[in-house]
Write a structure and sequence with these properties.
The protein has 394 residues and is an alpha/beta fold. The protein has helices at residues 16-21, 42-54, 69-73, 78-94, 130-141, 152-164, 167-178, 190-196, 205-226, 251-260, 272-276, 283-289, 322-338, 370-392, and strands spanning 2-6, 26-29, 58-63, 99-103, 114-118, 124-128, 229-233, 266-271, 294-299, 301-304, 310-313, 347-350. The protein has 14 helices and 12 strands.
């Protein structure tokens, strides 16, 4: 497998020379300063690619080429937005960047309530607390029908948490929830979040699913013509948030997406942490089922709790059997190589990581420390090499 590292561009607190020293072969990045829905200009793509290559690395994956909210809602001038998206794909193809990771999560990206939860081996980790989410949703945001989103046990714990916590505590939870959004995306206060949620009133799963299918039918033919492999990232967490539907959360959801346009270019980003947070997802089986369409992998791990909460664990210590998962990916690589498939290797990156040692001094993007991710990469690299040696003997 090809090792990669997510880089947030020139404003990233981790620079390309440091990434090179991790041993990664390539960089995963995007033009985060360009507004959603606008064309990525060819000169800007070329400039970013030149920066990466000057450091001895390859720009292997775009993460992400964002999907405008109006496409997800199926409103406004979607023809204009689709045309711009297609033009961006064409420009990326001209620069030889052949894989595009994207997601179809409405309004919010990955969502956590705590960005510095104590980790069992020291340092800190990202955490999603169902009680914290419910306390904010029900008692602070006061969303209509919020109570229907949570179990009785969670609601009881949420009420107790609300009674003993002050506004400063919940302001921090809101900031944490917003932390997953890309740098150029607007953050919300409680009031503005309450207002923007009105756009989703009456918006159901079937609406989002049909709008997603429409996106695929509009975009994948261009990707196919350009030789670009699109790969959708699963929802994180893999369930509805603030009552907003999510439709890339389970094996059945992925089947719907890939079957909507059944070509190789309509593929999957296998994110073991996102899928692994769902109590009913068997990540290894999901990877086996869709292995031919996996173009990119985010490898991380989580520990789930009975009430739906989860915390990001060390890469090899969570609920996902990382050894078996990497074995699935390497077997797929071998299958592609025997079939003489071009670009048979699967690109992966160590996704997220604990803040350890001096990581806390760097103030990096939440979930993306230097040392914690490098530790994860080293662990994944070791597992991969051991399995590869085993497969070479077969």
């Amino acid at each position: 497998m090809i090792e990669s590292w997510r880089w947030f561009g020139p404003l990233d607190k981790i620079d390309l020379t440091e990434i090179y020293q991790t041993g990664s072969d390539s960089v995963v990045t995007a033009l985060h300063d360009i507004s959603y829905g606008e064309i990525w200009p060819l000169p800007e793509i070329e400039k970013r690619k030149a920066m990466v290559e000057a450091a001895g690395l390859t720009w292997s994956v775009v993460e992400s080429l964002p999907v405008h909210e109006d496409i997800k809602l199926g409103r406004g001038n979607t023809s204009y937005l689709f045309n711009n998206y297609r033009k961006s794909l064409e420009n990326l193809a001209k620069c030889g960047v052949g894989i595009v990771c994207y997601n179809f999560m409405p309004l919010l990206d990955w969502t956590r309530t705590n960005l510095d939860a104590p980790a069992d081996t020291g340092g800190s980790a990202l955490r999603f607390s169902m009680a914290e989410m419910a306390a904010f949703d029900v008692f602070v945001l006061k969303r209509k029908e919020a109570k229907e989103s949570y179990s009785e046990e969670v609601l009881k714990n949420a009420e107790e948490l609300f009674k003993k916590s002050d506004q400063k505590y919940f302001d921090k939870i809101l900031r944490n929830i917003m932390a997953g959004l890309p740098g150029s995306y607007a953050r919300y206060s409680t009031e503005t979040l309450r207002e923007v949620l009105k756009n989703y009133e009456g918006f159901i799963h079937e609406d989002l699913r049909m709008n997603y299918q429409n996106f695929l039918r509009e975009i994948i033919p261009t990707a196919t013509d350009c030789g670009i492999r699109m790969c959708v990232h699963p929802d994180d967490p893999p369930w509805d948030v603030f009552g907003i539907p999510r439709v890339v959360s389970t094996k059945e959801d992925i089947s719907f997406a890939l079957d909507s346009v059944p070509v190789l270019e309509n593929g999957l980003t296998l994110c073991s942490g996102s899928l692994g947070a769902h109590p009913n997802n068997d990540v290894v089986k999901i990877a086996s089922s869709f292995s031919e369409r996996i173009h990119f992998a985010h490898l991380r791990n989580v520990k789930k709790e009975p009430d739906g909460s989860f915390q990001e664990s060390s890469h090899l210590k969570g609920d996902v059997n990382m050894v078996e998962l990497i074995k699935v990916l390497l077997k797929e690589e071998k299958k592609r190589k025997l079939a003489d498939v071009n670009s048979h290797e699967i690109i992966f990156r160590p996704d997220h990581g604990h803040e350890i040692l001096s990581d806390g001094e760097r103030n990096t993007h939440p979930g993306y420390p230097l040392l914690g991710r490098m530790k994860g990469l080293a662990e994944l690299r070791g597992v991969s090499k051991a399995i590869q040696n085993e497969l070479d003997l077969l």
